[in-house]
Design brief:
The protein is of the alpha+beta class. The chain is built from 14 helices and 26 strands. One of its GO terms (molecular function) is calcium ion binding. Keywords: Calcium, Cytoplasmic vesicle, Endoplasmic reticulum, Endosome, Membrane, Metal-binding, Repeat, Synapse, Transmembrane, Transmembrane helix.
């Protein structure tokens, strides 16, 4: 309260000394009527917060208590130059712009440098203004903390005036019948939809700066376009790393945007070293064409080689329930034609997804008034759209339709419900995760909301109706390609229960091999004469008649055997209660960690130990998941993948039966040796590992497939 009072006093003092029109004189406008263009130019004489007498400053912009922009970090500089631009849609200029400057500390809490307010009502409309803001700290008002230079342009959004007026009129009419208001105007809704796709292939780095004592580096690259971020893999001990990674960004601005690229050297147990940075101005690149860029690093040595392609927007949309693409017969035929007839056109466009977010019931009360302000976030991999907010309601109705392009049929649709809080980040209310292959088209279903870890139900139910149309051939081919990585993923943290769980999972996989070895050894020891005799006869028959094609044939027979067991109802595969119990224990530990996180700040100082433990934890998870994925392929956990495996094994069996092994090895070797010559920038991949990455592990089966099968309620519609 004292901090808030000091900030309010400081803001009031600054407002009384501002030259310009006051709020009372400022013309009233409709919500979403103003666009604020800000150029963060530079800082001067910032306060030092590091031991070396320097700082690593970055800037945050806040309006109405919510963060709307965060700049890049300028390392070891008290006079940083950012030259970053951002565009913000605001309801009314009476909301001040709050500027906060921090010093970035890797692994620790960032240090506060200073803050300032900008009264937007003092700005002249449609005129760019340079503003020099003095940073202050309410606790130390006499300290000189430096200044921030901005260029600000405030302009009304004329093109949406009519739309906003219509929304206000329709809201006034509807408010007599239902106590809810729309948070998102049409302009806000359009701002969610991307206008294009930026496809980036990180090829290599050349002659990078050596940052380690051995004269080498462990480089990785960070990309950022607006709020979208991507981090490459780490290539150890090299100054000429080969990454060969491909990813996509969404392009929201018509004029393009600027991609910020920084190169870092990974150091275990301490802050990573900064190698250099560069930028890509997308407005200078032509569309529908692949550009090879060699970017020289600034503030460092060496350069990066990229391939950048700008393409038109994918078919994503947000509409009301009355506007339904699949109910329009012409549009439905066009969609079916696109995915059924055009078999090999645009292999990345696998299918079409339509999600109707209808309503929710009995949500958790997140506010002190016993109500919530819920809104929904619909995510498919890196595609993310959201509904409007329904205020003060535990049974909201959204009635929105979202459409997405499907890049990978093995993706999981996530629908998360949040409570909007004006002065802080949104509160989590519940979440559902639905594999696309488990969706039954055209059925409205009630899904019980689950916790963040998807390990158990929370309060509330959400009603969804989902339709999926996809091309099976494209989906099968896409399965053998690298899986798309999510940009926004929680950082791994050390967890005793998670470490124990991964150890037990790996132990169970190893025990399968050990038990198989014991079984074979028992046959050699003639513990059971009948079994040993049968094994001996089978051994003689197989070895005498063995051909290479029998290996995929044996795997094919195993798949067929398990399939017939499932059909006959004799499948003895039991639900993994061990994993489920451990997930519940992990959830309890997460709750304790959340409560005690502030008291355990010293854990940040043990970062080196934690990183080693997290690495061991992740290795255990990868080894255990690999074995579980192989098992689940043969157990028909995902029938689509098992059928795909059958087709592949049949093809391999026929090839090995009719074609001598030497010719197969010859073709394989020629392909490997000439691949770089035929396609210099091809991304290396392993089709078998890419296939297995789509098969769920036992943990994923428990979290997504098992829980969904138990908590989904079918609704009969008149």
């Amino acid at each position: 309260l004292l901090d808030s009072f000091i900030l309010w006093g400081f803001f009031a003092f600054q407002r009384t000394n501002t030259i310009g029109t006051s709020n009372a004189d400022f013309p009233l406008a409709d919500p979403g009527m103003y666009q604020l263009d800000i150029t963060l130019k530079r800082g001067q004489n910032l306060a030092a917060r590091d031991r070396g007498g320097s700082s690593d400053p970055y800037v945050k912009f806040k309006i109405g208590g919510k963060e709307v922009f965060r700049s890049k970090t300028i390392h070891k500089n008290l006079n940083p130059v950012w030259e970053e631009k951002t565009c913000i849609l605001i309801d009314h200029p009476r909301e001040p712009l709050y500027i906060k400057v921090f010093d970035y500390d890797f692994g620790l809490q960032d240090d506060f440098i200073g803050s300032a307010f900008l009264d937007l009502t003092s700005l002249e409309l449609n005129r760019s203004t340079d503003i020099n803001l003095t940073l202050k700290d309410p606790h130390y008002p006499d300290h000189d903390l430096g200044t921030i230079l901005l260029s600000v342009l405030l302009a009304p959004k004329e093109e949406q005036r009519e739309v906003t007026m219509l929304m206000r009129k329709s809201w006034k009419r509807s408010s007599k019948f239902q106590p809810q208001s729309l948070r998102l105007s049409d302009m806000h809704r359009k701002s969610q939809l991307w206008r294009g796709i930026v496809s980036i292939t990180l090829i290599e780095g050349c002659e990078l700066k050596a940052m380690d004592a051995n004269g080498l580096s462990d480089p990785y690259v960070k990309f950022r376009l607006g709020h979208q971020k991507y981090k490459s893999k780490i290539v150890p001990k090299t100054l000429n790393p080969q990454w060969r990674e491909q990813f996509d960004f969404h392009l929201y601005e018509e004029r393009g945007g600027i991609i910020d690229i920084t190169v870092w050297d990974k150091d275990a147990g301490k802050r990573d070293d900064f190698i250099g940075r560069c930028q890509v101005d997308l407005s200078t690149l032509s569309r529908e064409q692949t550009h090879k860029l060699e970017l020289q690093l600034v503030e460092g040595e060496g350069w990066l080689v990229l391939l950048v392609t700008l393409t038109a927007s994918a078919a994503v949309s947000i509409s009301d329930l009355s506007v339904n693409s699949l109910e329009d017969q012409k549009e439905r035929e066009e969609i079916l034609k696109r995915y059924v007839l055009r078999m090999f056109h645009n292999m990345k466009d696998v299918g079409f997804l339509q999600v109707k977010v209808i309503r929710a019931e009995a949500l958790m009360a997140a506010d002190v008034t016993g109500k919530s302000d819920p809104f929904c976030v619909v995510e498919l991999n890196n595609d993310r759209l959201l509904t409007h907010t329904v205020y003060k309601n535990l049974n909201p109705e959204w009635n929105k339709v979202f459409t997405f392009n499907i890049k990978d049929i093995h993706s999981v649709l996530e629908v998360t419900v949040y409570d909007e809080d004006r002065d802080r980040s949104a509160d989590f209310l519940g979440k559902v995760a639905i594999p696309l292959l488990s969706i039954q088209n055209g059925e409205q279903k009630a899904y019980v909301l689950k916790n963040k870890q998807l390990t158990g139900p929370t309060k509330g139910v959400i009603y969804l109706e989902i339709d999926v149309i996809f091309n099976a051939v494209k989906a099968s081919i896409r399965t053998l390609m690298p899986k798309e990585q999510k940009y926004i993923e929680e950082e791994n943290r050390l967890s005793k229960q998670l470490l124990l769980r991964n150890f037990i999972r790996m132990k169970r996989c190893v025990m399968v091999l050990i038990n198989a070895a014991y079984y074979v050894n028992s046959c050699f020891d003639w513990d059971s004469p009948q079994r040993s005799l049968a094994a001996f006869v089978l051994f003689l028959f197989v070895v005498w008649n063995f051909e290479l094609y029998m290996i995929p044939l044996a795997l094919l027979l195993l798949l067929a055997w398990n399939y017939f067991l499932i059909l006959s109802g004799k499948d003895n595969t039991q639900h993994d209660t061990v994993v489920e119990d451990m997930l519940e224990d992990e959830e309890e530990e997460d709750d304790r960690d959340d409560k005690d996180s502030e008291k355990k700040g010293f854990m940040n100082k043990l970062y080196a130990i934690q990183e080693v433990c997290v690495s061991v934890q992740n290795v255990l998870d990868e080894v255990a998941s690999f074995g579980e994925r192989i098992k689940n392929t043969f157990n028909w956990t995902v029938p689509f993948l098992s059928w795909l495996a059958i087709v592949a094994l049949c093809v391999f069996t026929v090839i090995l039966y009719f074609i001598p092994l030497r010719y197969i090895v010859l073709v394989w070797g020629i392909n490997k040796f000439t691949k770089k010559l035929r396609s210099p920038y091809a991304i290396d991949n392993n089709e078998l590992l890419d296939f297995l990455s789509r098969v769920p592990s036992d943990v994923q089966v428990v979290c997504i497939y098992f829980f969904n099968s138990h908590i989904v309620v079918n609704l009969t519609l008149d």
